[in-house]
Specification:
Strand order of the largest sheet: 7-12-11-8-9-10
CATH topology of the largest domain: GROEL, domain 1
Oligomer: single chain
Number of domains: 3
Protein name: Thermosome subunit
Radius of gyration: 31 Å
InterPro entries: Chaperone_TCP-1, Cpn60/GroEL/TCP-1, GroEL-like_apical_dom_sf, GROEL-like_equatorial_sf, TCP-1-like_intermed_sf, TCP-1_chaperonin, thermosome_alpha
Organism: Marine Group I thaumarchaeote
Keywords: ATP-binding, Chaperone, Nucleotide-binding
Number of strands: 20
Strand content: 15-25%
Distance between the termini: 44 Å
Helix content: 40-55%
GO molecular function: ATP binding; ATP-dependent protein folding chaperone
């Protein structure tokens, strides 16, 4: 379609409607093909290298999609949808992209058959509604118990990079479950993920551990202080125990050495008075967000008190929740309610650094997972793996219903759609059939990445699902370890219902957006940065065309300036 000049004020490029629609769908399909090989326990990792040469190795779909540079607007829509899934449920990004890509590829086939995008959207919408209805029917409610927590985390971690690097993945799952159980409220189905602190240090992955308290990545202030204290009474302060510097410029006029001595003595007296107040409160461990002077440290050391200065604000919040302490409002009047407790506070060497452990809190509402790996790249990936496990448990705690993993849910829904679509009149039936085909891409991608034959797996999976007992839902999915189709519930391969629900809803929204775009109008940039043969680089309108001008009339940014008089 051509646009006569004068209709739009700016230069516009316009692609044909049919080409634009298919181009948008192809972009989504290509993005899906790029990430599909990382899906499942047997999926491969992706390496991303940024412009600075730093590399990232990951199987996490959300991380990879946020890192890559994508110019096509339709691909950006798919990435935004995946990020929505990631932000909402913490997992399922690759599943959503694979589904969108398959739906887009199938939509292209339908469009080439002459079916209108509006009909395809309606058919996909009907299939989505049927999928959600089926999800509500077949999902099973379970009690909030450690056993089901463990099975959910083990299933989630099986598809992550670190599962193959950690010697005892069962122990890692147990660490995540214990951490979540320590900080969540099962009576109200409430959990705050940020209450779990994740601390990273280089080392062996087998040394990863859970601390029922807080780890502070700092050392004890003074070598004269004790290195450990039992039955610790902890105080958190947000005041300087040092000479105070004014926030505004100030000036003190001193005319004699006596005045200087008197001024310094007054500063010391004020600091010493605050330090004595802390010692009198009974606290033997001090965490300060601000500075602690050498004199104050010496006084603490003489009285057997441990102090840590310049502690991060977030660490103070974690200490509050773990120890029951509260940040002191004023040192002048310390309340007993502001003092927290812990069984042990000690300094320990971890790798090449020393860290302070606050352990043995009675009812900690904040815990720390210390993760170890042999390089910073894998520490980052380990961190993402731990978070995915925590988010899966959060999803289940908020909505304690599960479905079978290994692609079993998608296979059951696809079979249900094929049964129902025969009662649908018109071409929407074809769109619903394509939706069912796309759902089957989840188990088939798992099978393909595990080395199973595509066609054999497809026929066998459909046969088992269609012949299963109608009175009882049989969750046939892919067992990637055995490379065969199995009943996933018997293998305790579970996934949260809320995760599947979010993936299906977001997938339908994204594909509806892509099918609803039939034309792209792109504004031609007015300003072009370019370099002339004689050296100068600048930006101005029309810079993409061949031209000449006097360099004196352009400033350093390439903007045209008023020239000297002799140019007129």
């Amino acid at each position: 379609m051509s646009i006569p000049k004068g209709i739009l004020a700016d230069d516009i490029t316009n692609a044909g409607r049919g080409e634009t629609l298919i181009g948008n769908l192809l972009a989504a399909s290509m993005l899906s093909d790029a990430i599909k090989t990382s899906f499942g326990p047997c999926g491969l990792e992706k390496m991303y290298i940024d412009i600075m040469g730093e590399s990232i190795i990951t199987k996490d779909g959300g991380t990879f999609l946020r890192k890559i540079d994508v110019e096509h607007p339709s691909a950006k829509v798919v990435i935004d949808g995946a990020n929505t899934v990631d932000n909402s449920v913490g997992d399922g990004t690759k599943s959503s992209v694979i589904l969108v890509g398959s739906l887009a590829k199938n939509a292209i086939e339908l469009i080439k058959l002459g079916i209108s995008p509006a009909v395809i959207i309606t058919g996909y919408q009907r299939a989505t509604e049927l999928s959600l209805e089926t999800l509500n029917e077949i999902s099973e409610t379970r009690n909030l118990e450690k056993g089901i927590f463990f099975d959910l985390v083990r299933t989630a971690l099986s598809s992550k990079s670190m599962s193959s690097l950690v010697d005892d993945s069962e122990n890692l799952s147990k660490i995540i479950v214990d951490a979540v159980c320590s900080i969540c409220d099962l009576k109200t189905n409430y959990i705050e993920v940020d209450d779990i602190k994740i601390e990273e240090k280089l080392g062996s992955a087998s040394d990863t551990k859970l601390v029922k308290g807080v780890i502070i990545d700092k050392t004890i202030d003074n070598s004269l202080m004790p290195r450990q204290i039992s039955n610790a009474k902890i105080i958190l302060i947000n005041e300087e125990l040092d000479a105070v510097r004014t926030k505004t410029e100030s000036e003190i006029i001193i005319t004699s050495p006596e005045q200087m001595s008197s001024f310094l003595e007054a500063e010391k007296t004020e600091v010493l008075r605050k330090v004595k107040k802390i010692a009198e409160s009974g606290a033997n461990v001090v965490f300060s967000r601000k500075g602690i002077s050498d004199m104050a440290q010496t006084y603490f050391a003489r009285n057997g008190i441990i102090s840590l200065r310049r502690v991060k604000e977030n660490d103070l919040f974690w200490l509050e929740k773990a120890t029951g302490a509260k940040i002191c409002q004023t040192i002048e009047k310390i309340s007993p309610n502001e003092i927290g407790t812990a069984n042990h506070v000690y300094e320990k060497e971890i790798g090449d650094d020393k860290m302070v452990f606050v352990e043995g809190c009675k009812k900690p509402k904040s815990v720390t997972i210390l993760i170890r790996a042999h390089s910073k790249k894998y520490l980052d990936e380990f961190h993402r793996t731990i978070l995915d496990g925590i988010y899966v448990l959060r999803d289940f705690i908020q909505n304690p219903k599960i479905v079978g993993g290994g692609g079993a849910f998608e296979a059951i829904v696809a079979n249900k759609i094929r049964k129902v679509m025969t009662s649908v009149d018109g071409k929407e039936q074809l769109a619903m059939a394509k939706f069912a085909d796309s759902l089957e891409q989840i188990p088939l991608t798992l099978a393909t990445n595990a080395g199973m034959d595509y066609l054999s797996t497809l026929s066998a999976l459909r046969s088992k699902i269609s012949s299963s007992n109608n009175g009882r839902c049989e969750w046939y999915g892919i067992d990637t370890n055995q490379r065969k189709i199995t009943e996933t519930f018997s293998k305790k391969i579970f996934e949260p219902k809320i995760l599947k629900e979010q993936v299906i809803k977001t997938t339908n929204d994204v594909i509806s957006i892509l099918l609803g775009i039939d034309d792209i109008f792109m504004k031609t940039p007015e300003m072009f940065t370019h370099t002339h043969a004689n050296g100068p680089t600048h930006t101005h309108k029309g810079g993409s065309l061949k031209h000449e001008h006097h360099n004196e009339r352009l400033d350093r940014l390439g903007k045209e300036q008023r020239g000297p008089h002799h140019y007129y």
